Amino acid sequence: MRMNRKIVRQAFYRSLPVMAGYVVLGAGFGILLRNAGYGVVWAFAMSAFIYAGAMQYVGVSLITGGAGVLATILTTFMVNARHLFYSISMIERYKNAGKYKPYMIFALTDETYSLVCDGKTPDEENADRYRFMLSLFNHCYWVGGSVLGSLLASVLPFSTAGIEFSMTALFVASFTEQWLETRDHLPALVGLLGTLLCLLIFGRERFLIPAMGLITLALTLLRGREEAAQ
After folding, report:
1. Is 154 within the bounds of a domain?
2. Residues 122/130, Cβ–Cβ less than 8 Å
3. What are the Cα distances from residue 113, in Å, to 61, 80, 131?
């Protein structure tokens, strides 16, 4: 029991920076959804069962715009395709997670990934439990923020102009944190240059999938050369 409490406490402390962002961004989503005519139950359900920050913001537009099933599927894939790359890089780390694995896969958001991708855990014997608690805390922050935003919007007037940019700001903050903590900046530079190139070639409406393919190819080739050099 003492070890369990220690793991929970350590996961909570590590998740505090994410809490600061998720409560605010979740509240932004709750406000946006409330202004679109959907109340606190919708905010709770979408955040608890979809749990895809940027896609939830986009989802408000899809719901209010009457988007069809095919358009919704394609948009969801384009917005969340980056998670395919997250999951591939975590296969080895999550493969023995046992009962924790399904939820940890579901809860692997950008910010949770940034906390677990380095492989650092305070107790290697309880690494899976630690990562599970870290994922759970972050999920609760997002759900709580969404519900809070919806409740506030029901009693106070809010302008939602420009609120969608909050997710972009969070991505920039996550990128900056990883840049500062990592000595090898080559993957980040490959991502930036590959994305910029595809943006110039395909335009902002169609660049995402080609950029991901290009980045994957470039990193695979670079990894192959490093392994050959060793």
Report:
1. yes
2. yes
3. 26, 14, 10
In this model, does residue 190 exceed pLDDT 50? Answer: yes
In the chain, DSSP assigns E strands to none
Which tens digits make up the pLDDT trace of 19-76?
988 998 899 899 889 988 899 999 999 999 999 888 888 888 888 887 788 878 877 8
Whether 181 is in a domain gets the answer no
Locate tokens 């919806």: which residue?
150
pLDDT, tens digit, 9 for 90 and up, residues 47-57 = 999 998 888 88
Residues 137 and 145: beta-carbon distance below 8 Å: no
Measured over all CA atoms, what is the biggest interatomic distance in the chain, rounded to whole angstroms? 63
Range of the domain at 77: 2-161
Mean local confidence (pLDDT), 117-125: 76
Q: pTM of the entire structure?
A: 0.73
Q: What is the mean pLDDT of the chain?
A: 83
Distance (Å, rounded) from C-alpha 80 to C-alpha 116? 19
Residues 6+ apart with CB under 8 A from 178: 114, 188
Number of domains in the chain: 1
CB 190 within 8 A of CB 222: yes
Domain presence at residue 182? no
| Unique residue bearing structure tokens 């917005």 | 79
